[in-house]
Amino acid sequence: MTTHHEMSTGRTLLFAVAGGAAVGNLYWSQPLLDDIASSLGTSASLAGLLVTLTQVGYALGILLVVPLGDVLDRRRLIPWVLVASAVALVLAAIAPTFTTLLVALALVGLTTVAGQLLIPLAGDLADPAQRGRVVGTIASGVLTGILVSRTISGVVADTFGWRAIFVLAAVVAVVLALLLRRAVPELRARDRVPYPQLVLSVFRAVRTHRTVRVTLVISSSVFAVFTMFWTALTFLLSSAPYDFSTSGIGLVGLVGLAGAVAAQRVGRLHDRGLSVPVTGGAIVLLLVSLVVAGIGARSIVVVLLAVLLLDVAVQAANVLNQTRLFSVDPAARSRLNTAFVTANFVGGAIGSALASVLWNAGGWTAVTVGAAVLTGFAATVWVVHRDRGLVVGSAPR
Hints:
Blueprint: H1 9-24, H2 33-40, H3 44-47, H4 49-64, H5 74-94, H6 98-111, H7 114-125, H8 131-160, H9 164-183, H10 195-208, H11 210-237, H12 246-253, H13 257-271, H14 275-295, H15 300-326, H16 333-385
Helix pairs in contact: 1-7, 1-8, 1-9, 4-6, 5-6, 5-7, 5-9, 7-8, 7-16, 8-13, 8-15, 10-16, 11-15, 11-16, 13-15, 14-15, 14-16
C-alpha cells in the first residue's frame, strides 16, 4: 500500500481536471445529435443511440477496467487508459459512417474511466485526516466536467464542426496522460489476483460489508432522484410557459455548478467525523428542494432555487457516501468505487425511466411527488441504519 501525505494541492487539482476531462467524453455528442445525423445521413432519433452506447460502454468500463486499479500499477494503468481513450476519440473524429461512429463512441465509453481510477487512488495517497477534502475536490472536478462538457461541445462544434470536439478531447487526453505519468508517485507492488476473481470480488465486497450495502442503497436512491428531476426538468422548460430552447435549458444546467462547490467543501465534514449526520441533512435538503420545485413550477426564479438546492444536496450526499466506502476496506477501494458507480448508474437509469412515465401520467407534479417518495425511502434507510449500518467498522453483516 502507498504512504500517505502525498496528495499535494497541485496533484489534487491535476486529478480533478483529469477526472472532469475524462467524464466529459461521455457527453460531447449530446448537443450534436442533429448535426451528426445530418452529416452522416441518419435520423436524429437513431442518432440518440450514440449517447446510449457511450453510456453502455462506460458501464462496462466501470465493471471491467476500474477493479484493475486494486492490483495493477496505477502509475502505468491510468496514463494508458487515457491514451486508449484518445485513440477511441480520434476514431470518432474520423468516422466515415454512422455505424463506425457508434463503435467508436462505445469504445470511448469503455476507456474513459480514468476519473474513477483517480478517485480511489487519491483515497490511497491522502492522509486519512484529509481524505474527505481530497476526494471532495476531485469529485467536484468530475461534476464540473459533466456540467460544462455540453456547453463546450456546442461552442466548438458551432465554430469548427462536430468532429473538432473529439480531436480536441483526444489531444487533452494525451497531455493529461503525460502529466499523470509524472505526477503519480511510485507505488509499492500489490498482491496479484486472477482477473475473473478480481471482478467477482466486487460483488463479494458488497455482500461482506453491511456499511457498503446500506450506503449503496441510499446513494442509488438519491441519484435516481437526481436523474428523474433533470430529465423531467427538460420537459418542463421546453413547454409552456417557458418554451426554452435547447441552449437555454443548457444554461439552466450551469446553476448546478454550485453542486461542484458543495462537493469540494463537504468532504471536510467527513474528515471531522460528521459523515453520517451530514448525509441525513443532505437527504432532508433534497426533500426541501423537491417541495420548492413542486410549489414553484411556474416561476423560473423558484425553479432555479430548487435546482441549486437539489444539486448541493445530491453532490454532498455523493461525496460523503463515496468517501465512507473508501474507509471500509483500503485494499479494495477501486472495487468499492466500481460498486458505487455501478449502483448510481442503475439508480440513474431507473430515475430517467420513471421521469418519462410520471411526466406522461401527471406532469411536473407527478414527477416531484414521485421523487419525494423515493427521497423518503432514502431517509427511512438512513434513520434505520444511522447508528450501526452506516458506521464504518460496525459488524460486517
